[in-house]
Every structure is written in structure tokens, then in C-alpha cells.
Write a structure and sequence with these properties.
It is a single chain. This protein has one domain. The protein has nine helices and no strands. The radius of gyration is 20 Å and the shape is globular. The termini are far apart. The N terminus is likely disordered.
């Protein structure tokens, strides 16, 4: 009976699904966080249960548990593959064919990417340290490029920006918005949907900048302590 209890404890420590659930419970019971931080910390981890990358990790985790092996790098490799496939999918939408429900796919990918980033970079007290700092920065950079391409698809799908007729122009405009360059050759002046998308993209860009600064600030504090 004792052996069974120990095995169950080991399973809880290694099963990603249960780790995430225990993290959510810990955050809900935490009494030292307040206000907006409290509600963001409580709600964001729940979105992991609609994330494809989360279920990829769960499947790899289950295989490893059955094989009695634990290799964190294996799960990370599959996550990296999923990131590459997302980029290829967006490139397909941009240069091959805009699908009828492209906006739904893109909004899902946007929500998935944002919630993962917010959880990893802001809810640091309840997440494991990254395997590699360089890898985390690289993935953040790739995620930013993904965001730019996502909005390029949305600008094309909704025909939101006047005079944008092809994928290259949509990507060019999306990068101009993300980098706040504002050359003026394309604008959302006469399009309500275009203005809404530009506002959303600028908000997301500011979130990326905030997360990057907060990440390096936390690293700086850890180094000094």
C-alpha cells in the first residue's frame, strides 16, 4: 500500500496534466497576490487546457511514463516542431490560399501563443525554469514573427486595409504596425475593421515589449541576489 502511494506521488510529480492542475489550485489558494495580478494569475493557466502544445506535451509525457523514462528535451523538440508547423501553416494561408475560416484559426493561434507567453513570463513563481535562456529568447522572437504573420492574414481576410492587394503588402503593413514605423503608404484611415485590428496588434506588441523587459529585469534581480 505504501509503495502504491509513493508511485502515485511520483506520477503526480511527473504528469503534466496534474502538474498544471496543481499549479492552478496553488494560485487560487494563494493569499499574497491581489487585484489584477490575482485574476490574471488565476485565469491565464486555465487557457492551457485549450492549447495544442499542452496536449502534445501530455502525450509525450504519457509515453515517457509508460516507458519509465523522463526526457524533458523530447517534449521540447515536439513543441519546437509544432512552432515550425504553425509558421508553415500561416505561410500557406498567406501565399497559397486563404481558407474560409482562416480568421478562426488565426484568432485561436493568437490566444494560444499569448496565454502561453503570459503564463511563462509573468507567472514565474509557479512555472519550471526554462531549459535554456537562449532557447526562451529565441522562441519569444519566433512568437513575435508569428504574431506579425497572423495579423497579415487577418488584414487580407477582412480586406481591412485600403490598397493592400497581396500577401507581401499585408506582411509589410503588419511589420510597419508592429515596429510602429508608420510610413504612411498604407493606413487604416477609411476602414473600421482595419482600425480595430491595428489597435489589437499594437496592444499585443506592447505586451511583448513588457514581457521582454520583465523577463530581463527578473534575470537581473536573480543575478544580483
Amino acid at each position: 500500500m505504501r509503495k502504491l502511494h509513493i508511485n502515485l506521488l511520483k506520477y503526480e510529480d511527473s504528469c503534466i496534466w496534474l502538474i498544471q492542475w496543481n499549479k492552478i489550485k496553488s494560485i487560487w489558494l494563494e493569499k499574497n497576490i491581489f487585484g489584477i495580478e490575482k485574476w490574471i494569475s488565476r485565469i491565464i493557466p486555465l487557457f492551457r487546457y485549450i492549447s495544442i502544445s499542452f496536449y502534445i506535451s501530455c502525450i509525450i509525457n504519457c509515453i515517457e511514463l509508460k516507458c519509465c523514462k523522463k526526457n524533458r528535451n523530447l517534449a521540447n523538440k515536439f513543441i519546437d516542431l509544432y512552432i515550425i508547423l504553425k509558421i508553415l501553416f500561416v505561410i500557406f494561408l498567406l501565399f497559397i490560399q486563404i481558407l474560409p475560416c482562416s480568421n478562426i484559426y488565426i484568432f485561436y493561434l493568437l490566444i494560444e501563443t499569448l496565454t502561453i507567453l503570459i503564463e511563462v513570463f509573468l507567472i514565474t513563481d509557479y512555472t519550471k525554469p526554462p531549459v535554456s535562456i537562449k532557447r526562451s529568447i529565441l522562441i519569444l522572437f519566433i512568437n513575435f514573427q508569428e504574431m506579425v504573420l497572423y495579423f497579415a492574414v487577418l488584414y487580407l481576410y477582412y480586406n481591412a486595409i485600403e490598397n493592400i492587394k497581396c500577401s507581401l503588402q499585408a506582411i509589410y503593413f503588419s511589420y510597419s504596425v508592429a515596429m510602429t514605423l508608420g510610413f504612411g503608404d498604407f493606413n487604416a484611415q477609411h476602414s473600421k475593421s482595419g482600425k480595430i485590428l491595428v489597435i489589437i496588434q499594437l496592444i499585443i506588441t506592447s505586451i511583448f515589449i513588457f514581457m521582454l523587459f520583465s523577463y530581463f529585469l527578473s534575470r537581473y534581480k536573480e543575478k544580483n541576489h
